[in-house]
Specification:
By secondary structure, the chain is mainly α. Helix content is about 55%, strand content about 0%. It is globular, with a radius of gyration of 13 Å.
């Protein structure tokens, strides 16, 4: 797997999820279902290094 720094991940996620900066989720975003890859990505992020 290609190494991506935590900093690059954080920058990318902030760009994709601007509501994190405002502290609230947009109404349209609240209506969306979680993305199919969410559980797999969460497991990778929470796995011990």
């Amino acid at each position: 797997m290609k190494y991506v720094s935590d900093q690059l991940v954080e920058i990318h996620l902030k760009r994709l999820n601007p509501w994190w900066q405002r502290g609230e989720v947009d109404e349209d975003a609240r209506k969306l279902r979680p993305r199919a890859y969410l559980d797999a990505v969460r497991a990778l992020l929470l796995a011990p290094q």
